[in-house]
Design brief:
Elements (H helix, E strand, L loop, with lengths): L1 E6 L5 H11 L6 E8 L5 H8 L3 E4 L8 H14 L4 E4 L8 H6 L4 E5 L11 H8 L3 E8 L9 E8 L6 H24 L3 E4 L2 E4 L2
Parallel strand pairs: 1-2, 1-4, 2-3, 4-5
Antiparallel strand pairs: 5-6, 6-7, 8-9
Glycinamide ribonucleotide (GAR) binds next to helix 1, strand 5 and helix 6.
Length: 202
């Protein structure tokens, strides 16, 4: 059984989709054993509680730097024998040490077609730029911001009357299907990484 930790800063709808996929066996051979947040009142923590999953607010203010924070985080993940770290709306950049400790075992979901519109405002940036197609990306995390090898991507058409909210709603609907799928592929050992490219052997 692979042990998954989810890191989230907010609402946690992706976390919910992952929990649901584990419970309905769409993700097989893995369990979400830990949910961590850098935000005290992240609803993601409440979702974890509701499902009896161990959860913890990791307070950034207790650490002098990002490195120290991540060092404590990694130690905690290792204590809990975590195999895969899933960032789901986790709005902090992870340190190179964290990446090294979980090399190719940290995933992230981003609400745009990377490498376009990285960062924390991917949906608004795409809308402001005027692209006709955007989407979402699941990728492994490397030292850069949203730069790691891409696992899955799916496009979403932008409508003339879209607002950030309406576009987010359609993108997240896809995210909730794509993220569990990528996790399931990883758990079943179906993803091979060569350089920047991920190959899926389904
Ligand atoms: C998701 O849409 C995710 O793509 C985005 O935050 C949202 C979190 O929603 N992540 C980023 O923008 C990362 N740069 P959720 O808390 O409901 O899962």
């Amino acid at each position: 059984m692979k042990r998954i930790a989810v890191l989230a800063s907010g609402n946690g709808t992706n976390l919910q989709a992952i929990i649901d996929a584990v419970e309905s066996k769409k993700i097989c051979g893995a369990e979400v054993v830990l949910v961590l947040s850098d935000k005290k009142d992240a609803y993601a923590l409440t979702r974890a509680k509701k499902h009896g999953i161990k959860n913890k607010f990791f307070d950034p203010q207790l650490y002098a730097s990002r490195q120290e924070y991540d060092r404590a985080l990694v130690a905690y993940l290792q204590e809990h024998k975590i195999d895969l770290v899933v960032l789901a709306g986790y709005m902090r950049l992870v340190s190179p040490e964290f990446v090294e400790a979980y090399k190719n075992r940290i995933m992230n979901i981003h609400p745009a077609l990377l490498p376009a519109f990285p960062g924390t405002k991917g949906i608004a940036a795409a809308l402001d730029y005027g692209v006709k197609v955007t989407g979402c990306t699941v990728h492994f995390v490397d030292e850069g911001m949203d730069t790691g090898p891409i696992i899955l991507q799916e496009a979403v058409t932008v409508r003339d009357d879209d607002t950030v909210e309406s576009l987010r709603e359609r993108i997240q609907k896809i995210e909730h299907r794509l993220y569990p799928k990528a996790i399931d592929l990883w758990v079943r050992g179906k993803i091979t990484i060569q350089g920047r490219r991920c190959f899926i052997d389904e």
